Amino acid sequence: WLKPFWPELGQGGQRFRAPVPTRGAARRNRCRPHRRSRPMASISAAPSYLPLALIDKCIGSRIWVIMKGDKEIVGTLRGFDDYVNMVIDDVREYTFTPQGKKITHLDSLLLNGNNITMMVPGGDPEENDSKGGVAAK
């Protein structure tokens, strides 16, 4: 049953989409928008980004990644995939233990997206130490 759509499956990362019928019963049975008695309030013009689009804007700049457990990573984001696995260069890894904070310098790091808790574009834990930020545990 996929033969008519086979050429569409392998084209440049596009996902498979079956054709949508636009005539006949399918068109008549479409949901119609709800009619409101009052006009809808206007939405602010503030831009909104999807998470992956925001991460994409951070490529080539510094990023602070807070991991599960007691680790934080700061470095230059080089790339990522759909699972938010990241390649980071010029890395400082902060590990927090009962004995104190340990800093490790690495040239490059491949980070598993499953272990990421939070990302701060342009952030740096050294700046937040004096302000009582996350790194000041």
What does this structure look like?
The structure is a single chain. With 137 residues, this protein is an alpha+beta fold. It has a domain at 60-136: Roll (SH3 type barrels). It contains four helices and five strands; from the N terminus they run H-H-H-E-E-E-E-E-H. A five-stranded antiparallel beta sheet has the order 4-3-2-1-5, with no helix packed on it. A hairpin with a 3-residue loop joins strand 1 and strand 2. It is globular, with a radius of gyration of 23 Å. The model is unreliable at 8-16 (pLDDT under 50).
Write the topology of this structure.
Blueprint: H1 6-9, H2 25-28, H3 51-57, E1 62-67, E2 71-80, E3 86-97, E4 100-111, E5 116-121, H4 125-129
Antiparallel strand pairs: 1-2, 1-5, 2-3, 3-4
Protein name: U6 snRNA-associated Sm-like protein LSm5
Keywords: mRNA processing, mRNA splicing, Nucleus, Ribonucleoprotein, RNA-binding, Spliceosome
Family: Belongs to the snRNP Sm proteins family.
Summarize it.
The protein has about 140 residues and is an alpha+beta fold. It has 4 helices and 5 strands, in the order αααβββββα. It has a domain at about 60-135: SH3 type barrels, CATH 2.30.30.
Any descriptors?
single chain, 137 residues, alpha+beta, SH3 type barrels, 15% helix, 34% strand, globular, LSm5
**How are the strands ordered across the major sheet?**
4-3-2-1-5
Percentage of residues in helical conformation: 10-25%
H/E series = HHHEEEEEH
Overall 3D form: globular
Total beta strand runs = 5
Kindly provide the radius of gyration, computed on alpha-carbon positions and rounded to a whole number of angstroms: 23 Å
Low-confidence stretches: 8-16
Second-tier CATH architecture of the domain at 60-136: Roll
Give a quick account of the main beta sheet: strands, pairing sense, barrel closure. 5 strands, antiparallel
Which CATH C-level class of the domain at 60-136 is it? Mainly Beta
Mean of pLDDT: 75
Number of separate helices: 4
CATH topology of the domain at 60-136: SH3 type barrels
β-strand amount: 25-35%
Distance between the termini: 59 Å
Helix/strand structural class: alpha+beta
Oligomer: single chain
Main location: nucleus
GO biological process, one term: mRNA splicing, via spliceosome
InterPro entries: LSm5 (IPR033871), LSM_dom_sf (IPR010920), Sm (IPR047575), Sm_dom_euk/arc (IPR001163)
Region (Disordered): 17-38
